[in-house]
Amino acid sequence: xxxxxxxxxxxxxxxxxxxxxxxxxxxxxxxxxxxxxxxxxxxxxxxxxxxxxxxxxxxxxxxxxxxxxxxxxxxxxxxxxxxxxxxxxxxxxxxxxxxxxxxxxxxxxxxxxxxxxxxxxxxxxxxxxxxxxxxxxxxxxxxxxxxxxxxxxxxxxxxxxxxxxxxxxxxxxxxxxxxxxxxxxxxxxxxxxxxxxxxxxxxxxxxxxxxxxxxxxxxxxxxxxxxxxxxxxxxxxxxxxxxxxxxxxxxxxxxxxxxxxxxxxxxxxxxxxxxxxxxxxxxxxxxxxxxxxxxxxxxxxxxxxxxxxxxxxxxxxxxxxxxxxxxxxxxxxxxxxxxxxxxxxxxxxxxxxxxxxxxxxxxxxxxxxxxxxxxx
Length: 376
Prior knowledge:
376 residues, 5-stranded mixed beta sheet, disordered N terminus
């Protein structure tokens, strides 16, 4: 009898001990869970286009490099199509300031609506060579002036790189002189500086939605498209009536990397260094100007007649748009434009050399007013 009564008691004791051990384990797990830091949500990286285009590729690569940054790594999630800014590329800086985006990569032309100083890259025929755009983007003093404007807009400027020059694709003819644009209805982006340039050349800029372009071209309501060569090449299957393309070299753009100031201030010095170095690497790897030139060669190979204006051919266009450049100088800032002019000025001639050109940005002379772009 005694042994019989001991067994249930032993079982009860073991069961109670097991229950206590289980409760202690649960408590320890709960305590560990409470003490473990939550994984930070990825920062939102805004860009207007997808990675098939240079701007989108630059943003994508920046995000990848930030995530691969070792101890200083920064988690990001790419949001293309300016989806964080109401599908409006010109509002991306506002999205940063308002906290709807944390990082952004944008076009200097699109962002010039909010930071007019960025228009220095797009002044008509001011920096018609890719090397000149690169020189502007690399100048520390010019970048400091731009950074002060960004600070006033609630953002921190991280890096700037050359993006390339815009071109015009038309249905009827290439554009060898300003009068060739007279009356042409050209689809373009709703950016005041760019529209003023086209108006000064006699064109009629249109801001049609892209979905309307094909019908407008086929119906004769549109004469051509204005944009980066990569964009025009991507649109060619849709707007196949683009039989001519002119590489005017008139309106340049830069790729701009920025971070919401509150986010930048919260980063460690190592993370800030990572952000700058990753942006600079993304600029190099994207090599946007070369991608734009490759798009021109692609269109030529597909049957589009591509014309690239030489320095001599550009002079009449620069003269025709000089009032626009003068008017925008004030909006951009005299200090910004003056610094850009010094960056682009040819070096002073050595004693005994021929006098330098009086124009700080005058391109070198060319034997003919225009020349066809090289075909592959």
